[in-house]
Amino acid sequence: MSVKKHIPNFITLLNLASGLIALVYAFNTNLQMAFFWVCMGIFFDFWDGFFARILKVQGKLGLQLDSLADMVTSGVVPGVAMYQLLANIADLTDDYNLSIDNGYLGLLPYVGFIITLASCYRLAKFNIDERQTDSFIGLPTPANALFIMSLPVILNQTGGEGLVFDFLSNPFILVGISLLSAYLLNAEIPLFSLKVKYFNWKNNKIQFIFLIVSVLLLSFFQYFAIPVIILFYVVLSVINNMTAKQANG
């Protein structure tokens, strides 16, 4: 029995294990630690594919296992995190008269799980979509998970005041973010590949622009930059698609 063919699958299981730990923290409303473990899961998610290609042991089992692990780390956990954000708004502010008595806390927080449903649909579609071998159509679940999981971390960084705090403690905004997330996951929007095949400006101009802007945003704004970078990736892809169409006549 060849050991090397099991190495990528073992790394994928580390992704799943990270997602399960993140899920425990999310259930206990420790969304900062949940964010950390989601990042760990995404880290392992990158390396399982890398080692599968290097060791030339890519197969159907690895593909399915990867999607199942991503479903937990990048699908279930963000949904639970958004549920917790919506359910605990009453503890952050009394601006919206939220309580179990008026029905809000009994129903609306479950809207957060639309992120999980959309992630599941995207992962299933990805496995049978032959167009997404070198790039993506719709936002990948790990990128979406970073987008959603960064929100409670940013909220914690605000110190309970300011424009960003007001924005992220608004239930209508959070519902809108949930719906936007579900849309971006499954939208027919081609997104450029982040893989750099040739280290030259001509062939990787858009990747280098994205990388430079992302590094600058992270340097200046830290956690606050994460959702901006994800949205910038989508917007830059749309601009790139429009430019390519015009160039091709």
From TrEMBL:
Signal peptide: none annotated. Keywords: Membrane, Transferase, Transmembrane, Transmembrane helix. The chain crosses the membrane at residues 7-28, 34-55, 67-87, 107-124, 136-155, 167-187, 208-236. It comes from the Bacteria. Gene3D superfamilies: 1.20.120.1760. The keyword Transmembrane applies. Pfam families: CDP-OH_P_transf. Belongs to the CDP-alcohol phosphatidyltransferase class-I family. This is CDP-alcohol phosphatidyltransferase family protein.
